[in-house]
């Protein structure tokens, strides 16, 4: 489910769970372990990528929905643990958004330091509300940090999926590239950062997102998300989603 690729002293961690890189417990654990492995190898920067046309389709709702409360609580612990691993990385981390990136895919991306997205007929956004799942506070905070309060409220409250051009315009992604150029351009960004004095750059990078890191460290989002998951409304809408997918 994961490919680890070396580009000199830059690590690419590529999600490879067919067909949509849907996030289940196994992929979340693999991705977390892959990122920690790259960090332990003392690389200069890390890239998270997906397959051409698909970064990640978000949560694997059909697999998660039948699970008992204990397993869902464990999944959310893993999920928010992944976000902390991404956000607290000691080296720069870039999301190479190689295609569609709804919900969980967008959540991963906003916790990175930079985002290069594929231009074209793709969608990115926080559509959790559309399927009955409230967006947790730390995710709202990460989104607000990028796009400002007005756009964050608009995107999250309505559960909007937007195209890459609008995402770039409002700051949800930092730049666009053709699908085939997303990874090379993300590598260029990594090399640009790696050319700077590393202590000064990384300390400044961490200070610039100190509020986000504090929110993550104080978060009780795993318990909150578990309670949301088993609410009557969320269960009803999730079952409707699974029925549509079938």
Q: Mind explaining what this structure looks like?
A:
This protein is of the alpha/beta class and 246 residues long. It has a single domain (2-245), classed as 2-enoyl-CoA Hydratase, Chain A, domain 1 (Alpha-Beta Complex). It has helices at 25-40, 61-64, 69-87, 104-110, 137-158, 164-170, 182-194, 198-208, 210-218, 221-229, 232-245; strands at residues 2-7, 10-15, 45-49, 53-54, 93-97, 99-102, 114-118, 124-125, 161-162, 175-177. The strands form 2 sheets. The chain has a 6-stranded mixed β-sheet with strand order 1-2-3-5-7-10, with helices on both faces. The longest helix is centred in the middle third of the chain and has 22 residues, at 137-158. The two termini are 23 Å apart.
Rg, Cα atoms, Å: 17 Å
CATH fold descriptor: 2-enoyl-CoA Hydratase, Chain A, domain 1
Count structural domains.
Answer: 1
Lateral arrangement of strands in the main beta sheet: 1-2-3-5-7-10
Helix-and-strand structural type: alpha/beta
Query: What would CATH call the architecture?
Result: Alpha-Beta Complex
3D shape: globular
The fraction of residues assigned to DSSP E strands is 15-25%
In a nutshell, what does this entry contain?
The protein is an alpha/beta fold and 246 residues long. Helices cover 53% and strands 16% of the residues.
Tags for this model:
single chain, 246 residues, alpha/beta, 2-enoyl-CoA Hydratase, Chain A, domain 1, six-stranded mixed sheet, four-stranded mixed sheet, 11 helices, globular
Layout of strands and helices, then pairs:
Layout: E1 2-7, E2 10-15, H1 25-40, E3 45-49, E4 53-54, H2 61-64, H3 69-87, E5 93-97, E6 99-102, H4 104-110, E7 114-118, E8 124-125, H5 137-158, E9 161-162, H6 164-170, E10 175-177, H7 182-194, H8 198-208, H9 210-218, H10 221-229, H11 232-245
Parallel strand pairs: 2-3, 3-5, 4-6, 5-7, 6-8, 7-10
Antiparallel strand pairs: 1-2, 8-9
Helix pairs in contact: 1-3, 3-9, 3-10
